[in-house]
Amino acid sequence: MPALPHPRWIAALALTLVVGCGGAARAAPVDLELVLAVDCSGSIDDDEFALQIKGYAQAFSHPSVIRAIRSGQHGAIAVTYVQWSGPFFQAQGVGWTLVSDADTAEGFGAKMVAAPRTIHRGGTSLSGIIDYASNLFGKSGHEGIRRVIDISGDGINNAGRRPSDARDDAVSRGLTINGLAILTDYGGLDRYFEENVVGGPGAFVIAAESFESFAAAILNKLIREIAQASLE
Length: 232
Description:
Layout (H helix, E strand, L loop, with lengths): L6 H20 L1 E12 L6 H15 L2 H8 L6 E8 L5 E10 L2 H13 L11 H9 L7 E12 L9 H10 L3 E7 L6 H8 L8 E4 L5 H17 L2
Parallel strand pairs: 1-2, 1-4, 4-5, 5-6
Antiparallel strand pairs: 2-3
Helix pairs in contact: 2-4, 2-8, 3-8, 5-6
């Protein structure tokens, strides 16, 4: 009668299988990996911050956004929410989350609303948030057809390296940067974003005339970003 395998060999094989399965899960394909980067610099008061977050939460609950997500090749996106201000002030408000239907989309929006504001000061470093967000994609647990950094802000870069240099580095890694320029302090901020911030395949800028119009702007922006992913 042949000898039975040693129990430690069986345990090692089981561990290998678990790790292998876990690795496959961590690399689950999605249509889009999306970083939502929300301005929390000193120029943003708490009411303006709340309007931004409410706008994102409402957008994720919108039927048009759900349809755009479901129409993709994989019918799912991975998204994370980040707060930012100066070169060294960035924090994930909500970690990477799989969104594939109305329930998960509304759940992500609810998490955004529930997450406390942790950054209340600092300058405006568009280069800093680009660099920070670029390094989040290897930690998403998913592999997207497209990888997009979505930056909303109300000011020009006033701290850190040049945003165009950070943009070029991100684009060289296959990333796309889109912008939502809030035109409350700088009337030409959308043009500044076009020249210095956005880049990569299909990159674009949408302008919001005020924080009150932010919700409509972000809805259009999300639909456009997700729809682009579904066309790849």
